[in-house]
Amino acid sequence: MLSNIGIPGLIIVLVLALIIFGPSKLPEIGRAFGTTLKEFKKSTRELVSDEQPEDKKKELL
Q1: CA distances, 40 to each of 17, 19, 35, 48, 59 (Å)
Q2: What DSSP string runs through 24-52?
Q3: Distance CA 51, CA 28 (A)
Q4: Residue 17, Cβ neighbours under 10 Å: how many?
Q5: What is the SS3 assignment for 10?
Q6: 36: pLDDT confidence band, cut at 50, 70 and 90?
Q7: Residue 46 · residue 38 · CB < 8 Å
Q8: Could you say which of 9, 12, 23, 54 would form a disulfide bridge with 5 (CB–CB 3.0 to 4.6 Å)?
């Protein structure tokens, strides 16, 4: 999906974000997005690791 945007489209999106949110808010938004993504990855890893032992137990039965 993002591969269809290209470099010019990405630059336009970044310029629009700079205009809408301003230079002081962009670092805060970036940090919040990074933290959210980090928590999401952590949660998915925990879900996958929790499900693996159950799958192995079922295979043994």
Answers
A1: 23, 28, 9, 12, 29
A2: TTHHHHHHHHHHHHHHHHHHHHHHHHHHH
A3: 35
A4: 14
A5: helix
A6: very high
A7: no
A8: 9
CB-CB contact of 13 with 5 (8 Å)? yes
Picking from 13, 17, 40, the residue whose alpha carbon sits closest to that of residue 27 is 17
Could you give the 3-state DSSP secondary structure of residue 23? coil
Contact by Cβ (8 Å): 53, 61 = no
Query: What pLDDT score was predicted for residue 49?
Result: 81
b/e map of 19-43 (b: 16 or more CB within 10 Å)? eeeeeeeeeeeeeeeeeeeeeeeee
The pTM of this model reads: 0.56
